[in-house]
Write a structure and sequence with these properties.
Blueprint (H helix, E strand, L loop, with lengths): L8 E5 L5 E5 L2 E13 L2 E2 L2 E4 L4 E5 L5 H16 L10 H23 L3
Parallel strand pairs: 3-6
Antiparallel strand pairs: 1-3, 2-3, 3-4, 5-6
Helix pairs in contact: 1-2
Length: about 110
């Protein structure tokens, strides 16, 4: 899920140390936690592009797919997709879900040396 300026994020942080991910020209902090909710709705992950932070639920069995999904939201923000006249939040969510499923399903093909 992608957080908006007026969104209410609730979670219990459990990560130690800072982990960062490069998205475009920006570094995003990766925060692991539990009981992750955005506007009262439980979720596996949240991208807060304003704070340059991605939150992931450590208890989720879908952490890999969720990380890829949230990275798509971060990329949409950093590469200006959200400023395009045809941008639509629902379409961004569908693209994020689609990319996450394809990357996770095929990860083993590129993770190993040939």
């Amino acid at each position: 899920m992608s957080a908006k300026k007026d969104s209410e994020l609730q979670f219990k942080a459990v990560s130690k140390g800072k982990k960062t991910l490069r998205v475009g020209c920006e570094d995003y902090q990766l925060v692991f936690g539990t009981e992750l909710k955005l506007n009262g709705v439980e979720c596996h992950g949240v991208c807060d592009s304003g704070a340059k932070t991605i939150y992931l639920d450590v208890n989720s069995d879908q952490r890999q797919a969720t990380l890829v999904h949230e990275l798509v939201h971060a990329a949409a923000a950093e590469f200006g997709l959200r400023h395009h006249e045809d941008w639509c939040p629902k379409l961004e969510e569908l693209i994020a879900e689609m990319v996450a499923k394809v990357v996770v399903a095929n990860y083993r093909l590129v993770a190993r040396k040939p």
